[in-house]
Amino acid sequence: MDKAQDRFEIVIAGGGSAGWMAAAALAQAAPRNTAITLVESEAIGIVGVGEATIPAIKIFNRILGISEADFLRETKGSFKLGIEFQNWLREDHGYFHQFGSFGRDFDTIPLHQYWLKLRHEGDETPIQDYSMAWALAKRNRFAPPVSDPRMVQSTHDYAYHFDAVLYGQFLRRYAEARGVTRVEGRIADVRRNGEDGDIAGLTLDDGRTVDGDFFIDCTGFRGVLIEDGLKTGYHDWRQWLPCDRAIAAPCAHGGDFTPYTRSTARAAGWQWRIPLQHRIGNGYVHCSEYISEDEATQTLLANLDGEAQADPRVLRFVTGRRKQFWTRNCVAIGLAAGFMEPLESTSIHLIQTGIMRLIALFPDREGNDLARQEYNRLTEAEYEHIRDFLVLHYRQTERSDPLWAYTRSMEIPETLQYRLDHYTSHGRLVAFGHDLFPNASWLAVMAGQGLEAEACDPIVERRDTPFRERLAGLKKVTHEAAERAPDHRTALDQIMGRTSAA
Ligand SMILES: Cc1cc2nc3c(=O)[nH]c(=O)nc-3n(C[C@H](O)[C@H](O)[C@H](O)COP(=O)(O)OP(=O)(O)OC[C@H]3O[C@@H](n4cnc5c(N)ncnc54)[C@H](O)[C@@H]3O)c2cc1C
């Protein structure tokens, strides 16, 4: 076989976060004979509003060899210890979804079962009071976790807020330096192979062609390859997650520089607040059936920390996913694969896991049936897990505005009902395999949204663990440790400065 024949040509269509994350990771991890070309159109542009992430993003950067200090500097990033949910259960009520656990189990029974027992005895301490992440967050402080598992400072985790446009530019430089070829142009046609229906190549609107062996569709909501070209079909999930619009507008700093995202429920949806170094990202995710774009824009602008720094942008979406993520010789990653509102900051994570899964099931010229099947099976499970987690926030509420009246009474997926039944009967948290959100996340949101367990696990009664002392001790050391941590801005400056000095 000659050298040219041996080359495996991957074409990435689209240069938003998905396209450049895929290009960077493949440039680093794909077999040596792989040639990578990325086609994007500056005239079309990118969504560019993904600003909050979950902790696994650290792994992605580590695989690419990007240091935390460089990443934070380049993307004007900040730290995120979790999400504060305001008014989701009812007005003037708040709770925190932390990254990390609630202390560490001190018995064979999960710690939260003892918290439930205290609760049934009348103790109203919220579960978040046992979280290191919340102890730091509520003081606007930050310190990375330590590795010694005996320390309470090892029980939290963190992610980042960052400017997605800057991240894309950073990854573009990274990928181009490692051999990725960028082609500027608008894809006008997806040419298919007569024999097997695979994609043979892309034709640009000026007549140039980009051919390849395997294609990654990162063209955003439209899905130029997966949908326009291959007609894959879409599962629409709006019956569970009816929001279909967002108005986004960055603003100047005004309030606290919080090491967490804030999500505030409003009459027809919810508003995000994401603090970066240079500005705050804001947006009102809403359902167009219950509010006009004008009214949603006014609501957003009336609730900013500082002066708006750009005109509000409208983003329209249909929640759901492609029927097949990988079909024929094309895999869709990013918004081309599907979309769920950014309530738990999962889109960039789905890009990351899509890329990692593709690397683990790396395609060949042919014989990809099993890899395709496995890719679709795992990705489907991941999407459904996240969907259920998001639906939980809407379903479990006392709010009565029309949107919330609908979501309170809607039928929910059986998989979610199963989890709720386990929690309400005996406070049990069930997991389905490799769930993205661990039990501690489910507990935070279930308890935060006011779901009550009728009883705790009966085994609790049979134990003579001194749980009162243990829980009181945990609360005390957690709060003492948080008091010793630096404030968010200082921690950020220290971490960014440390490596540059080195
Ligand atoms: C309101 C909102 C808020 C969000 N917030 C978050 C968040 O906080 N956290 C998070 O993780 N995610 C968030 N996301 C999701 C996040 O923005 C996306 O996952 C991320 O930006 C990836 O987008 P993408 O690269 O798939 O698509 P896009 O950014 O749309 O990029 C598509 C690319 O394809 C190219 N393209 C399209 N058509 C053609 C064509 N015909 N020819 C050539 N090129 C073409 C475009 O030029 C562009 O380069 C949010 C999304 C929305 C809508």
Task: Explain the overall architecture.
This protein is of the alpha+beta class and 502 residues long. It folds into 3 domains: 3-51 and 163-235 and 319-384, FAD/NAD(P)-binding domain (3-Layer(bba) Sandwich), CATH 3.50.50; 100-158 and 401-488, no CATH class; 245-316. 36% of the residues lie in helices and 19% in strands. The chain contains 16 helices and 21 strands. A 7-stranded mixed β-sheet has the order 5-4-14-15-16-13-17. Helix 2 (17-29) packs parallel to helix 7, helix 2 packs parallel to helix 10 (347-360) and helix 4 (68-75) crosses helix 16. The protein is globular. The relative contact order is 0.17. The mean pLDDT is 95. The protein binds flavin-adenine dinucleotide (FAD).
Q: What are the key terms here?
A:
single chain, 502 residues, alpha+beta, FAD/NAD(P)-binding domain, 3 domains, seven-stranded mixed β-sheet, six-stranded mixed β-sheet, 16 helices, binds flavin-adenine dinucleotide
Assembly classification: single chain
- In total, the number of strands is 21
- Provide the low-confidence segments as ranges: none
The set of bound ligands, ions and cofactors reads: flavin-adenine dinucleotide
Number of domains: 3
The strand line-up of the biggest sheet is 5-4-14-15-16-13-17
Residue fraction in strands: 15-25%
